[in-house]
Amino acid sequence: MNILFERIKSASHRHLQVLLPFYAETFPVEERRDTSSLLRMLDEPDMFFSAILSDELVVGLVVYWKFKKFLYIEHLAVFQSQRGNGIGESVLNKLQEEASPILLEVEIPFDEAGNRRVAFYQRCGFTALQVYYQQPPYRKGESVVPMMLYSDLSDWDTEVLDGSIEQFHLNVYYRKAD
To answer: Where do the structural domains in the chain lie, given as residue ranges?
Structure first.
């Protein structure tokens, strides 16, 4: 499957009309930024908010951060009508070409949808890292969210993993909190 990423760097980008409502309805409020915060961060050099395109059609979105030694996927979602077509796997493969290892957070599965998400990442070669993990809050005053940390590298050195988690927490959550 041939997919492309179109990076969005301004609040006037043509795809935001479709992607902002999709982002808000796809991710629970405690697992995403509010719209104004997201728009302020579009020019952040390490953050890539991108439309996923297939045959010039917007089919989803991916938000990822490029760090020196790893890539962190903050959000990945494919439109319901496009799921099951291999788009998500193609996105992960394309990101692995850009950088590896990759880290991402996955909700602890408590329903069928959560089990499908976990199964998807496992089919794509990602494994749950054996660490206790909580996603920091996006906004001051909110609670942490228990999650699982997944990676395409299963044998992280503990010290390197701890440093990587600290780096993406500082850049994605703490420094950028509302």
So the answer is: 3-174
Length, in residues, of the chain: 178
CB-based contact 178:75 (threshold 8 Å): no
Q: Pick from 71, 69, 13: which is nearest to 38 by CA?
A: 13
Check if CATH label 3.40.190.290 holds for domain 3-174: no
38, two tokens: 């997201």
pLDDT per position as a tens digit, 78-122: 999 999 899 999 999 999 998 889 999 999 998 998 899 999 999
Find the angle CA(46)-CA(47)-CA(51) to the nearest 5 degrees: 140
Asked if residues 65 and 74 have their Cβ atoms less than 8 Å apart, the reply is: yes
Cβ neighbours around 110 below 10 Å, total: 8
Count of helices and strands (H, E) across the chain: 5, 8
Residue 108: name the closest of 121, 91, 95 by CA. Answer: 121
Q: CB-based contacts of 100: which residues, under 8 Å, 6+ apart?
A: 70, 71, 152, 153
User: What CA–CA distance (Å, rounded) separates 101 from 98?
Assistant: 10
* Structure confidence at residue 175 (pLDDT): 60
